[in-house]
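[09:14] KT: can someone run the structure on this one? pasting the chain below
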Amino acid sequence: MSLLLDAVNVLAADIPNPKGEAPPELANKVNLVLGIVAWAGTAAGVAGVLITGAMMAISVKRGESSEHMSRLGMVLGGCVLVSTAGPIIQFVFK
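[09:31] RB: done, C-alpha cells below
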C-alpha cells in the first residue's frame, strides 16, 4: 500500500498547471473571427425576419395560407441564440 502512495505522490508532483490565458496574438485573431461570425449571424437574423415578412405579405395578398409563423418563430429563436451566445458562454466558463 505504501508503494502505491509513493507512486501517486511522485506522479502527482510534476503535474503542470498552465495559465488560463491564450497568447495575445491568438486571442486577437480569435476575437476578430468571433466578431465577424456574430455580425454575420445578426445580419442573417435580420434578413430572415425581412424575408419571412415579405413572404407573409405576398401570401396574404394571394389568399394563400402558409405556415409563416413557425418560420418566423425559428428565425426569432435563432436571433435570440446568436445574441445570447456570448453571455451564456461567459456565465458557464467564468
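[09:33] KT: thanks! The CA atoms of residues 26 and 32 lie 10 Å apart.
[09:34] RB: yep, looked fine to me
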